[in-house]
Design goal:
By secondary structure, the protein is of the alpha/beta class. It contains 11 helices and 9 strands. Helix 9 packs parallel to helix 10. The structure holds nicotinamide-adenine-dinucleotide.
């Protein structure tokens, strides 16, 4: 694997504009389960109930009970892992311009990445569906002690997390800035994504079509492996620190 790591590091070093594209797999070593595959969240919780906008609008209590019992306790205890930290180190060293993430856990920012595009929003912000007032996760959690679903303190409107539910479209401005990154970059590092969720998975494809070097680091193979210049099927927390080390040595 060392030769591939060196080749990836040298490609990053020679790039003018390198970006990363990340998915649930980069956070799995922090203890956040991925959605799909063995042990995935959706094997226990039906996404049509817990992550679907129609169901949320019909009966938000399922989501808020899930938030109270599962989401909140999990996000309160997780920390960025070696992969998030390595990516932030590449940012600080000036190698990585932006991280485009499908994740909603905020761990890239917590690790120190300065430019993060959150395609699917964030669970760390809760907002009022009527007046847009924002609440932290802690504030929303304490509201749940007295009312489910929680209501806005200002206008009594319904609250919701700032995430993109199934059945909703991505924020067009956020999607546009992600596509701009894909068009501008000459190197894209895809980490921990099954690359099956569209339109997100289109971003590495677009970058590759525009001539960027594509590197895929994922525990399992992906449908886009045939497009990649390098593929490493290993844990991100093992691979990314080695790339950082190689960048330091070269
Ligand atoms: P996915 O669940 O479809 O795929 C995750 C991939 O990561 C899998 O192919 C798996 O093999 C790989 N993987 C698991 N552990 C890994 C590790 N340690 N190192 C490298 N690879 C590893 O996830 P996706 O592609 O991001 O798409 C699904 C959707 O899941 C996204 O929309 C995202 O919003 C959402 N999601 C987010 C979180 C989070 O915020 N942490 C968690 C679960 C799901």
């Amino acid at each position: 694997m060392m030769d591939v790591i060196k080749a990836i590091a040298s490609s990053i070093k020679n790039s003018k504009y390198a970006v990363a594209f990340t998915g649930a797999g980069i956070s799995s070593e922090s203890g956040i389960p991925t959605y799909r595959g063995e042990g995935g969240l959706w094997t226990k919780y039906d996404p049509n109930i817990y992550a679907n906008v129609y169901y949320f609008n019909k009966d938000p209590s399922y989501y808020w009970n899930f938030f109270r019992e599962v989401r909140f306790p999990m996000l309160k205890k997780v920390k960025p892992n070696k992969a998030h930290i390595a990516m932030a180190e590449m940012d600080v060293a000036g190698y990585l311009k932006t991280v485009i993430t499908q994740n909603i856990d905020g761990l890239h920012q917590e690790a120190g990445s300065s430019s993060v595009i959150e395609l699917h929003g964030t669970t760390r912000i809760i907002h009022c569906m009527s007046c847009s007032k924002e609440y932290s996760m802690d504030e929303a959690f304490s509201k749940l002690e007295t009312e489910i679903p929680p209501r806005c303190s200002e206008c009594k409107g319904k609250l919701r997390p700032a995430v993109v539910f199934f059945g909703e479209t991505l924020d067009p401005q956020i999607l546009r800035s992600a596509y701009e990154e894909a068009e501008n970059c000459d190197f894209i590092l895809s980490v921990g994504s099954s690359l099956v969720v569209f339109p997100a998975a289109d971003i590495p494809v677009k970058a590759k079509q525009r001539g960027a070097t594509l590197v895929i680091i994922n525990k399992e193979s992906t449908p886009l492996d045939h497009l990649a210049d390098h593929v490493i099927n290993e844990e991100a927390g093992n691979v990314l620190p080695q790339i950082v080390q190689s960048l330091k040595e070269s």
